[in-house]
Structures are given as structure tokens and as C-alpha cells.
Design a protein that fits this description.
The relative contact order is 0.16. The longest helix has 20 residues. The protein folds into two domains: 318 residues, TIM Barrel (Alpha-Beta Barrel), CATH 3.20.20; 141 residues, Urease, subunit C, domain 1 (Roll). With 485 residues, it is α/β, with parallel strands linked by helices.
Length: 485
């Protein structure tokens, strides 16, 4: 039975996505829309701003210079904006996906990340050669910032061999180069140099899948869909920690969750119950309150991945049961104050799908949900950077929304403005090129329109302009009340 979104697909699309996992795809795809371009770093004055601080909406004026928020108004600005009713939030982050780890995937999905306001991402099992092709694409101002994990460890009959290989057999498994195969702790010494070389990004991904059911090892249809033994995972984690590396564990069941905790892993990249490939009783995915508290004590990070559940198309009664288990798991983790991150594992989507799925699930208060998506997850992916905040010294990256997402989450669907480290991101090349050319002194009083005082006020309202375009006007007919100068 399948354990991944990839294995839901059949025919040419399955082959195309398998090629994405293995390396550059040969399939020809239509070119994407006009790419985003980044302006030069701009100096900004944002008057009458409202912004989400991780708990609630704050109000005041904001200033940007040198790519960061600053405390004092700059002497001159490239963009002076009067924000009326709109809300700024930090960009979203995606803690679990695979769609940007090849050049083909980057071409298909990188623009979508920016479209949906997702500026930060973790790709959790990339082939080193394919990732090497993508890194220069990611190292651009108008691109999502990505952490790539290329040290992926599973058993010789483990996931994701069944989805990676067209014909998954012991022979083809030994010949593939994307995954490091490990069956016993004793094999670790021989395999460690290869694992260590691949773990340049600081993290290893390891797979647990139904380890508590050893009888599955003897079933041919389960080949390529299992994972490490708990003893092997524990030995791998100890070795990784000795070399200052983190371990992220893929899990399926609550028993896998407990084994990952016992091994001391740093991340658990699925909430149990995201899928039920074996048709198990839903209680197999329910973690205990004791396990939730252990995760909190150990500082283990749990990535949510509830959006992926519907992709497996469970029967309505099973979907409802899994959703109930997910709510219970999240409630127990919250009660224990365990650390959660937002990640979707939806190959055709981004973290925005996960935010919506969690909101629909009703398991997290909306302020907490937005904090996880816009502050906690970005900081976990890039701990050395000041992300997800609007205080002086924080990176000046944000989305401008038409209204308050705490009241209406649909405001996330189409940002009016995207700014990354003080640079305007836009699909209009001429706007990106010209943005830094205009400047105005912040000491100059605003110019009044000719005519009577009353007429001047009316004229000022008529002249209120949309923010600098971040998408072609044809795609965004939504009104904006921000005045841009």
C-alpha cells in the first residue's frame, strides 16, 4: 500500500514525478507566467501601518533601510505609503515539501511559492546532484529561501524506494544513488562517510514506517514502503549528534512517533494520522499525553502535514476519524507546549494549503496558527536570521494584505504587495527597474492639490493609488487603498 502522495498517481504523471525525485525531468512543460523580479533594496516609510506581531495587530509607522526595519525615519525614501485598513504580515514558511529540489520542480513551483507569500522552505529529501542544479536558482533575491536536505536514510526495503524507482526490487534499490540504505547499527560505520558528506546542510532525514509490525517485511507489496529499525535510528541519531548534525524522522504511526522520541531525533516531520495506507484503526495514530510531554521536554519539533490527508482520498468515515485523531494529537501537543512547525508535504502546493487545512480543522487558534506560519517556522529553518518580526533589526520582509487575516483568512490568498529584505517583488520588470530611481525627502510637507481646501481633500482621496504592482493588473483587480509615492 502507498505511503506517499506520489504513489496516489498513475500513468505518465507518476513517471514524471518519479523523474523529479530522481533527477532532471525530460518532460516538456509550458513556460510559467512572467517571473518575479526584485527591485534594488528600497528605503520605505509606511505610515499608519497595521501589522501582525505574532499575537495581535499592532499600529504605528514603520521604516525600512538597508533591508531591515529601523527605528528612525530615513532622511529620504524611495517609497512612502499611507496604509489605510490594510495589514502587514511576515511571509509564510513551508517546513516539509519536495517540489523545489530539482530544476524541473523549481520551474514548476518556485513562482507559486512567491504567489502564495511563502518565502522560506525546507526540501526534505533531495538528490545531491539535482539539488546542486537548483542552488544557484534559489540564491537569487526574487526566489524563496530554501534549506535542502540531501542526506536521506532508509532501510534496504524502505520508503521512498517504491515511489522513487519504476521497478522497486532489491537489485534496483542497491543501484540507486539518491538514498543511503541502512539495515543494522553495525552497518553505520561503513555508511557514515557517505551520510556525513551529504549532510552539509546540517540535517539528516531518516525513515520509520510501521516498525512495530515486523510481519510486513515479508510481504512483497510492502517492499520499498517500510523503514529503519528503532535500534538503527538510535545509532544513527547518536552518531549525527556527535557530529553536530540534526535528524528529522519520517513517521507513520504513533508507535513510530514514540520510537523517534526514544531515539532522540530533533524533528518529527509528520503528525501521525496524516495518512492511513494500511487501513489501520485510527487509534494507531493517536499519540499519548505522555509522548506529547516527552516531545516538549526534549525540544523535539513536530511538523503538522495535515493538508496531505485528503490527497489520499480516504472514505468519508475514515477521513472524519483521521481528522478527529489529528485534532486530539494537536491538542495534546499544545497542552504539553511542544514545538510545532507548519509543513504541508503537498507536492502540488505550499504551506498556504497547510495553513488553510489547519484552520479548517479548528485545532489551533488563528493567532497561534499565523504565528507558527510566519514566525516560528521561518526561524526554525533559518535560526541565524531575524525573521517574522517588525522590530528594528528584523529583516524587512512582509506581505501587504487587503484586510486582517485574523478575522478573515482568505486575505492570505492574494497579497497586494510582496517585499523581501526591502526589495519589491513584482512580475512587472519595468516596476522593478524603476523602483529605486524615485526618492522623496521625508522632511518635505505633502503637496496640496490646487483649488479650494474642500476640493483639495477630495482630490487627495481620488489620487490614492494602489501599492506598486507585484502582479500584473489583469491578475489582480482587487482594490487597494495604500497611497504610494
Amino acid at each position: 500500500m502507498p505511503v506517499s502522495f506520489f504513489s496516489l498517481l498513475r500513468g505518465p504523471l507518476l513517471l514524471a514525478l518519479a523523474a523529479v525525485a530522481a533527477g532532471p525531468a525530460t518532460a516538456q512543460s509550458p513556460p510559467p507566467e512572467a517571473p518575479y523580479e526584485a527591485s534594488a533594496p528600497l528605503t520605505w516609510e509606511l505610515k499608519g501601518a497595521r501589522w501582525f506581531d505574532g499575537r495581535q495587530i499592532q499600529r504605528g509607522n514603520l521604516y525600512i533601510e538597508g533591508g531591515v526595519f529601523v527605528a528612525k525615519k530615513p532622511a529620504k525614501v524611495n517609497r512612502k505609503m499611507d496604509l489605510r485598513g490594510q495589514v502587514l504580515i511576515p511571509p509564510l514558511a513551508e517546513a516539509h515539501n519536495h517540489n523545489l529540489q530539482t530544476a524541473w520542480g523549481w520551474q514548476q513551483f518556485a513562482q507559486r511559492y512567491l504567489d502564495e507569500g511563502v518565502f522560506y522552505a525546507a526540501m526534505l529529501c533531495g538528490d545531491p546532484t539535482s539539488v546542486a542544479e537548483v542552488r544557484p536558482l534559489a540564491d537569487q533575491p526574487a526566489a524563496p529561501d530554501v534549506n535542502f536536505v540531501t542526506a536521506c536514510v532508509t532501510s534496504s526495503d524502505g520508503y521512498p524506494l517504491a515511489t522513487l524507482l519504476k521497478d522497486a526490487t532489491p537489485d534496483t534499490a542497491r543501484q540507486q544513488q539518491q538514498l543511503v540504505l541502512l539495515d543494522t547499527p553495525e552497518q553505520l560505520d561503513a555508511q557514515w562517510p557517505a551520510i556525513r558528506e551529504r549532510a552539509a546542510g546540517g540535517m539528516i532525514r531518516a525513515v520509520l514506517a510501521h516498525h512495530e509490525r515486523p510481519e510486513l517485511r515479508g510481504r512483497p507489496e510492502m517492499f520499498g514502503r517500510l523503514g529503519l529499525s528503532p535500534e538503527t535510528l538510535s545509532a544513527l541519531t547518536r552518531r549525527a549528534h556527535a557530529d553536530q548534525l540534526k535528524v528529522a524522522a519520517h513517521v507513520e504511526s504513533a508507535a513510530d512517533f514514540d520510537a523517534a522520541l526514544a531515539a532522540g531525533v530533533d524533528w518529527i516531520v509528520h503528525l501521525p494520522g496524516y495518512a492511513n495506507p494500511l487501513g489501520d484503526p485510527p487509534e494507531r495514530f493517536l499519540i499519548s499525553q505522555e509522548s506529547a510531554e516527552q516531545a516538549a521536554r526534549q525540544g523535539t519539533v513536530i511538523v503538522t502535514t495535515v493538508a496531505a490527508t485528503e490527497l489520499f482520498q480516504p472514505a468519508p468515515e475514515m477521513l472524519a476519524a483521521l481528522r478527529t485523531v489529528q485534532r486530539q494529537n494537536l491538542a495534546r501537543l499544545q497542552m504539553a507546549h511542544a514545538k510545532l512547525l507548519i509543513g504541508s508535504d503537498v507536492f502540488m502546493g505550499t504551506a498556504l494549503a497547510e495553513v488553510k487545512a489547519l484552520d479548517q480543522l479548528g485545532a489551533l487558534p488563528r493567532p497561534e496558527l499565523l504565528r507558527l506560519a510566519t514566525r516560528d517556522t521561518p526561524r526554525a529553518l533559518f535560526p541565524q536570521r531575524r525573521l517574522g518580526c517588525f522590530e528594528p533589526g528584523c529583516e524587512a520582509s512582509f506581505l501587504l494584505l487587503l484586510g486582517d487575516p485574523l478575522e478573515d483568512l482568505s486575505h492570505l490568498d492574494q497579497p497586494l504587495l510582496r517585499v523581501k529584505q526591502g526589495r519589491l517583488l513584482t512580475q512587472l520588470a519595468q516596476v522593478a527597474a524603476a523602483s529605486s530611481l524615485a526618492s522623496a525627502s521625508t522632511a518635505e510637507p505633502p503637496k496640496k492639490a490646487a483649488g479650494s481646501k474642500k476640493a483639495g481633500k477630495a482630490g487627495s482621496k481620488k489620487q490614492a493609488a494602489k501599492p506598486p504592482a507585484s502582479k500584473p493588473a489583469a491578475k489582480s483587480a482587487r482594490p487597494a487603498s495604500a497611497k504610494a509615492r
